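ingest -> validate -> predict -> emit
validate: passed (alphabet ok, no gaps, 213 aa)
predict: started
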Amino acid sequence: MEPAAAGFVRIDPAQNTNQDNYKLLIGSVVPRPIAFVSSQSRAGELNLAPFSFFTGVCSNPPTILFCPMIRGSDAQKKDTLLNIEETGEYVVNVVSEDIVEKMNQTAAEFPRGVNEFEKADLTPAPSMLVKPPRVLESAISMECRLQQIIPVGDGSVGSGFVVLGTVVQFHIREDLYTAGRIDTVGLKPVSRLAGSAYAPVRDIFELQRPGKA
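emit:
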């Protein structure tokens, strides 16, 4: 790390530890939406876990991605990824203010096979086209079928995977849906910041996109 002439600090990630680079990423790429992913193993064991490296990809077909990292405690894949590798199906649930504390309870590192729905007192609701259940308390859920898993890194701690999935069914709470659009204010989504920090989406403003130059 060295001071830059223009008042900036220059940091070479190649000289940083994995953890230092992680802190820079989660402090810079903000706010991040939260993918609350429900999955199940081939044996039928349910799993529920949050991921904040998450975004949309495209609309034809409707595709979203999230990025589970190699677990820091034992350098192994997370249960969510193992389940998706086994079954090719999962559900991404949106985290709103009313379930954010329960979502946080599922972020604990439980042994494989533990049902986080039960740990967080959340309700598994039947999906229509995939086997893993959605979270009943979530205002929006997206049933997904796996498109592709892309490994990134050398497989050590800090490496990860890009999980691309096609949305095959939307579940949207009725009061949030009008004429093909979703009421963002009513949804009350929560975003992830750095450390233990989260942020609600409340102060919204609009900008009209300029026309062609």
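The longest helix spans residues 18-28.
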